[in-house]
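Homework help board

Subject: predicted structure for assignment chain

Our instructor gave us this sequence and asked us to write out the predicted structure in token form, then describe one feature. I got the tokens but I'm not sure how to describe them. Can anyone check?
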Amino acid sequence: MQLRGKVAIITGSSMGIGLAVAERFLKEDARVVINSRHPDKAREVARDLGHEEQVIGVGADVSRSPEAERLVEATLGHFGRVDIMVCNAGTSLIRAAEDITAEEWAHVIDLNLSGVFYSAQAAAKSMIRQGGGNILLIGSILGRVGLPRRAAYCATKHALVGLTKVLALDWAPYGIRVNNLAPGYIATEMNIRDQSTSDYSDQDILRRDPMGRYGTVEEIAQGALYLVSDASGYVTGVDLPIDGGWVAYGGW
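My token output:
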């Protein structure tokens, strides 16, 4: 019960990695806020998790600062505190750089970078008042390396590495730890959608990954638990890849 008594907000948690993190935190006796842009979806997922007194669903588009603040306010109104903010909401875009429209660029930047900052900032204001907390950004191995046709996505994930370091330094005096978790190729709904662009196949991943497989959402959730629990009490400002050795491998 590593998170007993803790209150955790997980943005973009109606599916995929965010949902797996929510389920893992519930097993550790945390109280959890499920978030989606769609209020009905957030409430539906919260109900389906089956922990009526421990879970609520809150609809908010965190790419907008007032919405991120409202998400935190709703959490404070229900649970009275915020101990953990997992900034997971994000999107991908696979398109040649010369073909990316201004609207597409802005959408990725707004959600993957600005939305992360707004969520972290809103949570930190409450954490400063209560005397500490944990903020976890969900980045990507594409915050360390580049791939063709991913200019917007890679730009945001690289930016999160720097943002993590600065937020960790700014908020360490208040007892707030800030870290970045960088998944490799994980079997999720987003992965299926990205494959639909014919950009890569399962065999491409299995051949390139040193461990010869996709990662699982449960493995990412376990890493998230480590970074927000007391087990990592002296860890802040780090970028932790969980990628099967992808970034370490420089061969063909």
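Reply (TA_rk): Your tokens look well-formed. For the description, you could write something like this. The radius of gyration is 17 Å. That's the kind of observation they're looking for.
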